[in-house]
Structures are given as structure tokens and as C-alpha cells.
Amino acid sequence: MASRAVISLAFAASSDAFSGRGQVLVNDPEFISRLNSVPDSMWTATSHSFFDGQTMDDARVLLGAHLSHIAEHLNDTRPDSVYAAVQDVPADFDARTNWPGLIHPIRDQQQCGSCWAFSASEVLSDRVAIASGAASPVLSAEDLVSCDRGDMGCNGGQLPTAWEYLHRTGLVTDACYPYTAGLGSAPKCRSTCMNDEAFTRTKASSTYAINGVDNMQKDLLMHGPIQVGFQVYRSFMNYKSGIYHKHLWEVIPEGGHAVKLVGWGFDPTVKSILGGRYWTVANSWNTNWGEQGFFRIVRGWNHCNIEKMGPPYAGLVATQMAGSSIVV
Fold first, then answer.
1. Which residues form the catalytic set?
2. Fewer CB within 10 Å, N side or C side of the chain?
3. Cα–Cα distance between 158 and 183 in angstroms, integer?
4. Pairing mode, if any, of strands 239-244 and 294-298?
């Protein structure tokens, strides 16, 4: 009994020392060195200028996704027959190469818990472009942050609620309503553009949750990127490259994050028990984080709850070209 207690205390001390509790720096060299010395790790860690001088308490503000489980949203999914029509799912797929010029670039949420708004607006932006077959403007994350009364701006939001706003209200363009909440405070909702555009919102014609890895892949194949949420552990902040996975000694998540899923793949060189299958995901921490703003994460194991929590969500757009504008 005494030896078990010692082991338990030692594990707790180790976990606490390398967790994000307290005023530990995100770019702590000792922590990064430990991450890069883990045997059989499938990814490498580094410091990022995005987090210069920030403690984990500062960085935790970015994790604004209030996650729920897919089991709570099964009535909001599409019929299985929709996905049954897709017979063959390729071993790898990337929306950026499948729809060149139509996937919008990495953005920067800055010091606001608006990941839920950025990823939702980015998915809708991409799907409008894909449905119309033509490049389209970036849609406004600020519209969601400031005007979606069902969510809480820089204090976070829920994926299903955000998509309800995209369906019922829609978004103006980012040029019309640019992002100004980056310091952590959402300005008052606007009803006029900050440029000379008409204040016209683009809507999702329908929205839905997505249940299961196969359906996530098939939905992305058919319509474009989807929004997903996952639990973030401290090590994720220092991700540089490779296939991300949390470590066994990371037991307490720092919060929930929402991101844009753009594809998947397989790395045959990986020898880890987790395998080489991965998701390719767009983050909203600028392009100097991760793999030029993107990251890969283990696929098929519900790692960090990325396949169940959120839940995975998207919407369809019905587009009709009217000159050079998109009317929805």
C-alpha cells in the first residue's frame, strides 16, 4: 500500500509540474525539451512567437469552444442514406488541393476566445466558394462574435448555436465587418458596413451535426471542410509539426477549441501504436504556428475527443449566381 501511495504521489507531482496549472509559461524551454525527448512521439514541439511572454492562464483564454458530445445531437444529423451514396473514401484527401483557390487562408483570432466563430465562419466561407465553383470573400467572424446572442463573444461559444446563427441570420463579408475583437472585447453589433458594401448576409440553407469518422470524411468529400471541436492539452500549444497526440501524463485538458477540418491522410513511416492515420486541420493562430497554421492529429481513435465532442458540425449552402455576387 505504501509503495502504491508513493507512485501515486510521484505521478501527481509530475503531472502537476508539466500541466498548464498556475503561471507557467507556454514557451517554457524545459517543457518543450521534455516534449521533444518523449520516445516514439509522432510530432515535434517548439516555442511560438504567438505565445511570447504568455502564461498558460493567458493562453487558456483562446480556448473558447464550449463542447458537447455527439450523443446529444443525434437528432440533428443527416440521414445515413445521404452518406451511403459515397462508396469509396480515399486513403488521403485535402480540400486545398481538391478545390484549389477556394479554401480560404489561415486567420488569427488573437487574444479572444473566438475560435468557435472563426472556424464556423471559415467553413461557411469555403462551402460558399465550393458550391459556387468560384473564389468568394472571407465571411466575417466578427459578425458572429459581436452579433450572435446565443453565444458569448470572446468568452466562448457552441458549435451548434453558431451554426443556428449562420442559418437564421448569416454573415456579411469580412471586408464589410472586419475583426476588431482581438484584444479580448467584442464591440457592439453593427448593422452597416465599415466600407461601402451593402450590408448583405450570406446564410447556410441547412445545418447539421455529423456522427462518426466515416460520415465526417464523406461530408468533407461531398461539400467541403467541416467544423470540429476537441479538448486541448498543454502540449498542443507548442506543436510544430508531425501527427499530434497528447502524452499519457497529460490528464487534465486546458479547455475546448474549435477548428476547421480540411482533410486526412496516412503516414506509413509511423511506428506508434496509434498508427499513421491523421486529420489535417486549420487552426486560427496565424501562419507562424504549427505547419504554416495547420496541424495534423491522430485519426480514428477519437483522440482528444475530436471525433465525438464539439460535435462535428457543418451546413449546406444553396447558391445562385447573380452577376459576380452570391445570393443565398
1. 115, 257, 283
2. N
3. 21
4. parallel
Q: In angstroms, rounded to a whole number, what is the distance separating the alpha carbons of residues 206 and 15?
A: 44
Q: Could you give the 3-state DSSP secondary structure of residue 69?
A: strand
Q: How far apart are CA 289 and CA 286, in angstroms?
A: 6
Percent of residues, the chain, with pLDDT higher than 90: 86
- Give the H or E element holding residue 137: none
Strand 206-209 with 277-282, pairing: unpaired
Query: Model-level pTM?
Result: 0.91
Which residues, other chains included, contact 200 with Cβ-Cβ below 8 Å and sequence gap of 6+?
172
3-state class (DSSP) for residue 8? helix
The sign of the CA dihedral 284, 150, 312, 246 is: positive
Name the phi and psi angles at 44, rounded to 5.
-115, 155
CA torsion sign for 157, 163, 165, 170 is positive
List the domains of the chain with CATH numbers.
Answer: 2-327 (3.90.70.10)
* Joined grid coordinates for residue 167: 442559418
Helix (H) or strand (E) holding 10: helix 2-17
Name 243's bridge partners: 296
Between CA 238 and CA 136 the distance in angstroms is 33
CA 317 to CA 202: how far, in whole Å?
Answer: 9
Of 90-94, 116-120, 261-265, 315-319, which range is least confident? 315-319
Q: Report the alpha-carbon distance of residue 103 to residue 220 in Å, rounded.
A: 12
CB 74 within 8 A of CB 211: yes
Other beta carbons within 10 Å of 174:
19
The confidence band for 230, taking pLDDT boundaries of 50, 70 and 90, is very high
Q: What is the DSSP string of 297-326?
A: EE-SS-GGGTTTBS--EEEE---EEETTEE
